[in-house]
Design goal:
It is a single chain. This protein is an alpha+beta fold and 379 residues long. The strands form four sheets. Strands 9, 10, 11, 12, 13, 14, 15, 18 and 19 form a nine-stranded antiparallel sheet that branches. The chain has a four-stranded parallel sheet with strand order 3-2-1-4, with helices on both faces. It is 30% helix and 28% strand. The radius of gyration is 21 Å and the shape is globular. The protein binds adenosine-5'-triphosphate and magnesium ion (2 copies). The site of adenosine-5'-triphosphate has 18 residues, from strand 6, strand 9 and strand 14. Adenosine-5'-triphosphate binds next to strand 6, strand 9 and strand 14.
């Protein structure tokens, strides 16, 4: 079999490797970390940084095609690899996803509504901010994830302090919107333009980190679900995107659908697809990068995903034993995924639990039991 490469050795790379291997491919990972989750399960592991010319050349020499699992891989590294082999997604699309200002400009270009915002790169732009954007959230334009690099501000004074706190790097200020709930859509687009989607995912975040994803008929009103799928496809097509793309949305109190941000890769909110869909988001990633047919995935089970954060390994500030997996695995429809991370830290993504069932009610009931056993807050 051919070897498929992935930039980044985190859990997304690990689950990509599992999917690729199930389809007969070998995998190669580029990641500095000796014990990266993806490196541990791959045939080849290039241990360099993302910008290391020798490492990139070595990866290119090993692989038939390359993808990325880490959102902040320098676009230049993807472009460099693209000189010698197929790379998806392209550096140009990833560059837009890496910069909130460019990302929002793309939404505007596609005619997909996003939160009112202003780009703040200079003291002049800061001073010129319209009061209508307050209260708001100041977000660094680059490198933020899991709510990091974001400060909520109510007043102009708070805004000025927040920008100092963020070291006056390029930011966007977004108006704080009244959210009824959050959802996301994953699309996969091939080099020939074929595009398929996973169903709309309803997401609950806690402390800026995804906590719960629920996917079943009626999780989001049908009108917004349809709009979200159409919007996600137009965002992907507008980027001439090849690969798996996640588009995050807000549903406002008044029912309006607003796009939040995109991730140019499989996404935490799509992990349920491993057990509740007949094609997972990681298999879609493999199919995109190897020009295999994209079939519309079919959901066969109602599902709830619970994220397993490192906090579960701690009790009263002390490292405790691993959670009671035997009790979790006694629940019907429980699918445990652990990422093989060497040490647990609070807020670190250690794994996820997919619950599948014949009905939404049953899936929720079982997921709530699992949450209780684990000590995860109910939802
Ligand atoms: P991710 O880990 O998903 O990449 P991130 O760090 O890029 O997260 P965002 O998605 O921008 O962060 O924001 C994190 C969360 O903060 C959102 O999911 C939402 O709950 C809340 N949030 C962000 N922007 C707004 C807004 N304009 N109005 C209200 N809530 C918001
Ligand atoms: Mg983000
Ligand atoms: Mg987000």
């Amino acid at each position: 079999g051919a070897t498929l490469g992935v930039l980044g050795g985190g859990q997304l790379g690990r689950m990509f490797a599992h999917a690729a291997q199930a389809m007969g491919y070998f995998t190669a990972v580029l990641d500095k970390d000796e014990t990266s989750p993806a490196g541990l399960v791959s045939h080849q592991h290039v241990r360099t940084g993302y910008e290391d010319a020798k490492g990139l050349a070595e990866l290119a020499g090993l692989c038939a095609a390359v993808t990325t699992e880490f959102e902040n891989v320098p676009a230049g590294s993807l472009n460099k690899l693209a000189e010698s082999l197929p790379v998806s997604p392209a550096g140009s699309a990833v560059a837009i996803a890496q910069d909130r200002a460019a990302e929002k400009a793309h939404f505007v270009k596609c005619g997909v509504p996003c939160a009112p915002y202003a780009v703040i790169e200079t003291a002049e732009q800061l001073a010129a901010v319209n009061d209508a954007l307050l209260p708001g959230i100041l977000k660094t334009a680059r490198m933020g994830y899991d709510g990091k690099g974001q400060i909520r501000v109510k007043t102009r004074d708070e805004l000025i302090k927040a920008w100092d706190e963020l070291k006056q790097v390029a930011c966007v200020l977004e108006k704080m919107l009244p959210l009824a709930h959050e959802c996301s859509v994953i699309v996969a687009r091939g080099r020939n333009g074929d595009i398929v989607n996973l169903p709309v995912q309803r997401n609950l975040h806690r402390d800026g980190i995804l906590a719960v994803t629920e996917v079943y008929e009626g999780n989001v009103p049908a009108a917004q679900a349809e709009q979200a799928v159409a919007a996600a496809k137009s965002v992907a097509i507008g980027l001439d995107y090849v690969g798996v793309l996640c588009v995050e949305f807000f549903v406002l109190d008044n029912g309006q659908l607003v796009v939040n941000e995109i991730a140019p890769r499989p996404h935490n909110s799509g992990h349920y697809s491993q057990n509740a869909m007949d094609v997972s988001q990681f298999e879609l990633q493999v199919r995109c990068m190897t020009n295999l047919p994209l079939v519309q995935p079919r959901q066969h089970s109602a599902t709830v995903m619970l994220n397993l954060l490192g906090d579960l390994w701690f009790k009263d500030g002390e490292t405790a034993k691993a959670p009671a997996w035997d009790q979790i695995l006694a629940l019907p429809g429980a699918h445990l995924h652990l990422y093989g991370k060497v040490d647990a830290k609070p807020a670190r993504k250690m794994g996820h639990l997919n619950i599948t069932a014949a009905s939404p009610e049953k899936a929720r009931e079982t997921a709530l039991k699992a949450a209780e056993i684990l000590g995860i807050e109910a939802f």
